[in-house]
Amino acid sequence: MRTDLFDFALPVGCIAERPVQPRDSAKLLHVHDQGWVDRTVLDLPKLLRPGDVMVFNDTRVLPARLLGRRGVVDVECLLHRQIDADIWDVFAKPAKRLKLGQTIDFDGNLSAEVIGKSDTGLVRVKFNAKGAELLQALQRVGHIPLPPYIRRTDDAQDRTDYQTVYAAKDGSIAAPTAGLHFTQRLLDAIDATGTKRLNVTLHVGAGTFLPVKVDDTDQHTMHAEWGEVSASVAAAIHQAKANGGRVIAVGTTSLRLLESAAAATGQVTSFADETSIFITPGYRFKAVDVLMTNFHLPKSTLFMLVCAFAGHERMTSVYSHAINAGYRFYSYGDASWLERATKP
Fold this sequence. Notes:
The chain is α/β, with parallel strands linked by helices. It folds into 2 domains: about 5-60 and about 160-340, QueA-like (3-Layer(aba) Sandwich), CATH 3.40.1780.10; about 65-145, QueA-like (Thrombin, subunit H), CATH 2.40.10.240. The chain has 7 helices and 17 strands. The chain has helices spanning about 130-140, 160, 185-190, 230-240, 250-260, 300-310, 310-325, and strands at about 25-30, 35-40, 55, 60, 65-70, 75-85, 85-95, 105, 110-115, 120-125, 170, 195-200, 225-230, 245-250, 270-275, 290-295, 335-340. The strands form 3 sheets. The chain has a 9-stranded mixed sheet, with helices on one face. Strands 5-6-7-10-9-8 form a 6-stranded antiparallel β-barrel. A two-stranded parallel sheet has the order 4-11. Helix 6 packs across helix 7 (about 310-325).
């Protein structure tokens, strides 16, 4: 499909620089076959039905933006994918000036040797620390990797704001942003409905920030991300669907992982692998019935995904309404609750 079909004008003032407080007071646009309703995130329990399951991504965001020097040259590294306990693929600036064997020095006695370069712009580095020691060093010297459309430097508040309250497993470079709206009181309210909460893990890579630069979606290459669905979670999803319950994905990361783990029959199986699934209109969803997600960038893979899920024409109208109604966009913005279109 032509990528310009997914373009729209977004005023700069719609981009959220900070989240609302408390998190669950954000707006929630409920989209269904008959239209849409303006709500707040605290209304979410009212949208649940007996037997539903909600699937959350429990990944934890790393302070993955590193500022260092190679000699007299300033170097910025954004971690992308872990290869070994001390080896990562990173997006580096300026990547072209880095050569094999060179060392990048960061603050706090952390350094990394360049051990590989690829045609895709990734640089492979080997740190002088590994495992828990490397994670501790990242906490000391790393910066929260705020998306490029947030035009400010990260600060101490972002260490809380850009992390879900249920984050458990280190590994992401970007937050599963739909999950940022949840508070403990909202999770308790969900539990009170009898809805089962399930956790999966997808470590979001820096590729999520990359724009679609090609004219045709068939020419776009997605970066692979590692994810895991346990056998017990897969069984719980199967049981819920067998009993007529809906599978509600909290965030596009949860949805992409569940669809990667689903067989053609729709049954979700255990999964522990990389996925580079790219969902555009025409895709037939196998596992997910409802998607909670934020509002996404024009011409982005995520806007393409929501158009595939809820209908291109409908989502174009929904986004126009959201802009006119003052919804806040992107990572720190408001949320939508999308019921899957009954007609593709």
